[in-house]
């Protein structure tokens, strides 16, 4: 109970920039303002995926991680823009300077979002809501950008809150409201719940936090392993993770557990294509390139192996990631073996831009 009490005393803010890359482009290039633009991908939808879409583009249904070809089908007049990471990094640096006026406990998740612990703030304002309001205003006044903020007593709820009233939102979820809020939350919004796990939960009749809450911790652990213990706590509003500045990213990747075991290359290659796209999208968001590509394989008997290939130069190109992963897979002679999970990751980064690797699946791109 002592940890839970300490947790309830925290004041946590999650700041998430609104369509960050696209907003920087519209700020710096007046000709893009008010228009449907996409950062990333290729003109005329020849390849790649959307890293960020402006809010004007989102009205047509264009979303982050969508193939460029699909984006152009939805909006033939959409403008594709090559990312300018130097500009995004510079804006991100200035945003963090604003954060540091209020606290040194800053945990960046990427160029465009961060957690702040303002339990004790430098300016002795006392109110996390007021601090969030001031930060948002400073970003708007000094950088001509907008941010959304979530305020609560722990990281998980603050992050969810920041997404509720985008763009330019400020949402507070207080201690007395958390359990009711968590009960209404769809299971796919929970930390660590990807598509396969969400499908499994729904087949079990678990659609919301309220449904998860009906199961004991042992039941959840039995069905979902260690993550089940986290679900048990978080649905009750308990998240004791501290805001942790200065943690260095060692690797970045993605993986998927399949609804049924894969036994042929024809089944495995499309799954690797999807996983590689996710990895590529995350690398773009975090501005990272790595020299080592690692393939992870878990078999139906839960035996697990990894295979990797290192390059003399840092890479983040989708075709290189995909081709390398498929070559590593072939080298394991996978035909007729039952594979339940595949994963791809990159490591040995040449430049660490953010100081924390993504620790959840709530947002892969700017929202």
TrEMBL record:
Q: Where is this site: Substrate discrimination?
A: 21
Q: What does this protein do?
A: Poorly processive, error-prone DNA polymerase involved in untargeted mutagenesis. Copies undamaged DNA at stalled replication forks, which arise in vivo from mismatched or misaligned primer ends. These misaligned primers can be extended by PolIV. Exhibits no 3'-5' exonuclease (proofreading) activity. May be involved in translesional synthesis, in conjunction with the beta clamp from PolIII.
Protein name per its UniProtKB record: DNA polymerase IV
Q: Which cofactor does it need?
A: Mg(2+)
Q: What class of enzyme is it?
A: transferase
What is any one of the record's Gene Ontology cellular component terms?
cytosol
- Binding-site list for Mg(2+): 16, 112
- Which SUPFAM superfamilies is this protein grouped with? DNA/RNA polymerases, Lesion bypass DNA polymerase (Y-family), little finger domain
The record's remark on the cofactor is: Binds 2 magnesium ions per subunit.
- UniProt EC number: 2.7.7.7
Q: Which UniProt keywords apply?
A: Cytoplasm, DNA damage, DNA repair, DNA replication, DNA-binding, DNA-directed DNA polymerase, Magnesium, Metal-binding, Mutator protein, Nucleotidyltransferase, Transferase
Which GO MF terms does the UniProt record name?
A: damaged DNA binding; DNA-directed DNA polymerase activity; magnesium ion binding
As recorded in Swiss-Prot or TrEMBL, the protein's gene is named dinB
All copies of the UmuC domain together span: 12-194
Q: How does it assemble?
A: Monomer.
Q: So where's the catalytic machinery, residue-wise?
A: 113
Q: Which PROSITE patterns match?
A: UMUC (PS50173)
Which GO BP terms sit in this record? DNA repair; DNA-templated DNA replication; error-prone translesion synthesis; SOS response
What reaction does this enzyme carry out catalytically? DNA(n) + a 2'-deoxyribonucleoside 5'-triphosphate = DNA(n+1) + diphosphate
Task: Tell me its family.
Answer: Belongs to the DNA polymerase type-Y family.
Q: Where in the cell is it found?
A: Cytoplasm
